[in-house]
Each structure stands twice: as structure tokens, then as C-alpha cells.
Design goal:
ten-stranded mixed beta sheet, single chain
């Protein structure tokens, strides 16, 4: 099974990622030419920082970011300033809103930190895959002056950036394509193969910050930082979300696309509200909480430690751990040279 990632021809390059499956084993390789931007060469950290929240207000969230971000900057060898990173996309999870979503206090605290570092509102935009009309009005009012981009915005996707797969679309997606192309079966079948990527996160010299929740998922293991950037941020991905092999494999494959991987600054998972079972839909019965956040460069490593938290809470409730505690996502990611989550380090930052 051959998948092609199509990109802007002005760069005169194409990334070809080969994915073949034999006895449910994934082997993939990615290729890319030498980059023209030294920022792509910043070091990759294996650290994840865990920081306790004294409260759940704006000041507490700002304080934990102010403690962790300088450490991440030191690992990157670059300071979070406009002259290093001209544009920032702040990608936040709202997939199960209003039941479970990234807290507005975390979003505001991140924006405040960027403002103090010299970023203007024109240099930062807010990104989330889906908000209904009422929520979008609320968020637009709360963050007046910042551009809010959703999957319905013209700038969210780009026609040249997509993941190609022969896997048939889910029924809902297929119906949507039929309505769009009722008399053009050839074009419809081409569209059905494509999963459009969140181009607004990485095009036009833009770098991303990823704010996520952690949710139980019976097929992925966890719907967290990785899925928030990959399956949860891309179009036509329902076909992968209910497959315990293709779902994790495609998540890792999308994350491995160089233009996405190399544009990461850091990810945050807020552990103040975590769903440990009942996924992928919202179920308040299985909400657990810890007054802390975890933050780091590699979203895979954050998902690993969020899963440890979920496993602990599931055990306390007498629930079995998914996949026997061996999650395909991390195996596939290691094959794609995205890092070994089992070798990552959790560092607790103590209060002063």
C-alpha cells in the first residue's frame, strides 16, 4: 500500500512515505532534502515536565508556563521570539466541548506569555478543528483581535497538502463527498482517498504550539497531543479512527511529515480533567483529575505519560488497560524515528 504526501511544487520536492502492512506490522521510511532554515536543526528533547497547579486560574497557568518554557527553549537552543518564529499557530482541542475541552485559562495564559515575548495579535492565530456557531462566537469574543481558524475557514486546509490512502471513507464522509460531486464520480473517488492536512499550522513560516486534553480511546489508546495534531486536525480521517492498527499508524505517519514535525515548539496536556474510559465520546462518569499539566517538545512523550495517568486511574476503578499496556502508536512512531517514548524522562518541577 503506497501513500503519497503531496506538497507545494514551488519547493520542488515531494515527500513519499511508504506504508505496507504484513501481519499488522508497519514499516515506513520518510525522505526529505536538506532544509534551508537553520531553525529546523534545533535539538530534540526527551524531557517531559510535570508542574503542579496551585489553583486553576489564569495566574496559576501562566506561572507553570513561565517555569517550563525557558527549559524547553534551552533544549531547542532558540528563544521564543518573533525574530526566530515569525508566526505562531496555537492549536487547541475542542473536540468534546463543552464536556471536555482545553481550559480557556490555559489558552489565555499562553497568549499572554507570547505577548510578553513580543508577539503581536497579528503574529498569533488560534486554531481548532471544529467549533459550533455558538462556541465560535464565544471564543471570538473572548479572544478579540486574534484570528480564529477552524476547519470551515478557507485558510485551514490547502489543496496541495494531503495524505493519500486507498482506504474507503467513513459513511458520513462519503455522503458529504457525494453531495459535493453528485455527477462527477471520478473526482469524487479522488477526493475520497485524500485526507487534507491542517496547512494553517505549518505553511507561511508558521510554527505550532499544541494544547490538548487526554481522553481514553479504545482504538488509538489515547486521544491526546498526537491525535489533536493528526487525525483530529485533518479532514476525512473517520475511516482511521475506528481501526486499532491503521489509526495509530496514520497518526504517526502524519506526525512524521517533516513540515509538521519540524514546526513544533511544544505541546501541553492539561491533566485537570481527563477521561479514562468511555471514549471516544464524552462520558462524565469517567472523568478524573490531577492538579497539574505536562509540557514538552515531543507530543508522543506527553501522550505516554498521560497514558500512565489513565492506566493508574483505570486500575483504581478495576478497568483493564488498553492493548495490555503496549500501545501501537509508540511502536509505529519509533519506526518512523520520532523517538522512543519508553525512553523519555518525566521531570517534576517543584514549587519555589
Amino acid at each position: 500500500m503506497l501513500r503519497f504526501f503531496h506538497r507545494n511544487w514551488k519547493r520542488q520536492a515531494m515527500v513519499c512515505i511508504i506504508l505496507h502492512s504484513v501481519n499488522l506490522f508497519l514499516c515506513a521510511e520518510s525522505q526529505i532534502g536538506a532544509g534551508d532554515n537553520d531553525k529546523k536543526n534545533h535539538s530534540q528533547s526527551s524531557s517531559v515536565y510535570s508542574i503542579g497547579l496551585q489553583n486553576r486560574d489564569l495566574q496559576a497557568y501562566f506561572q507553570v508556563l513561565a517555569k517550563a518554557i525557558p527549559r524547553i527553549e534551552n533544549e531547542m537552543g532558540l528563544e521564543l521570539r518573533p525574530y526566530n518564529f515569525p508566526k505562531i499557530a496555537l492549536n487547541f482541542d475542542s473536540s468534546l466541548a463543552p464536556g471536555l475541552t482545553v481550559r480557556s485559562e490555559l489558552v489565555i495564559a499562553t497568549l499572554k506569555f507570547l505577548e510578553l515575548r513580543g508577539f503581536t495579535k497579528e503574529e498569533v492565530h488560534l486554531v481548532t478543528f471544529y467549533l459550533d456557531r455558538l462556541q465560535e462566537i464565544e471564543w471570538s469574543g473572548r479572544f478579540k483581535g486574534y484570528e480564529l481558524i477552524t476547519s470551515q475557514s478557507p485558510s485551514y486546509f490547502h489543496v496541495d497538502w494531503f495524505q493519500d490512502s486507498p482506504l474507503p471513507p467513513a459513511m458520513g464522509d462519503r455522503a458529504r463527498f457525494f453531495l459535493q460531486y453528485p455527477r462527477d464520480s471520478v473526482n469524487r473517488k479522488l477526493k475520497e482517498r485524500k485526507s487534507l492536512l491542517p496547512a494553517c499550522l505549518f505553511l507561511n513560516n508558521c510554527y505550532w504550539i499544541n494544547l490538548s486534553t487526554a481522553k481514553d480511546d479504545p482504538f488509538l489508546g489515547i486521544d491526546g497531543a498526537v491525535s489533536n495534531l493528526t487525525l483530529g486536525a485533518s479532514g476525512n480521517t473517520q475511516r482511521f479512527k475506528k481501526d486499532s492498527t491503521l489509526g495509530p499508524a496514520m497518526s504517526a505517519e502524519i506526525l512524521a511529515i517533516p513540515e509538521i514535525w519540524e514546526k513544533k515548539l511544544f505541546s501541553v496536556i492539561d491533566l485537570t480533567s481527563v477521561q479514562i474510559a468511555g471514549g471516544p465520546e464524552f462520558d462524565a462518569e469517567f472523568l478524573e483529575s490531577d492538579d497539574s499539566i505536562i509540557i514538552g517538545q515531543n507530543p508522543l512523550y506527553l501522550d505516554y505519560y498521560a497514558l500512565k495517568f489513565i492506566e493508574q486511574k483505570r486500575k483504581h476503578r478495576g478497568l483493564l488497560n488498553r492493548f495490555g499496556g503496549k500501545y501501537p502508536l509508540f511502536r509505529f512512531a519509533k519506526e518512523l524515528n520520532l523517538g522512543d517514548a519508553y525512553s523519555s524522562n518525566l521531570i517534576e518541577i517543584q514549587e519555589n
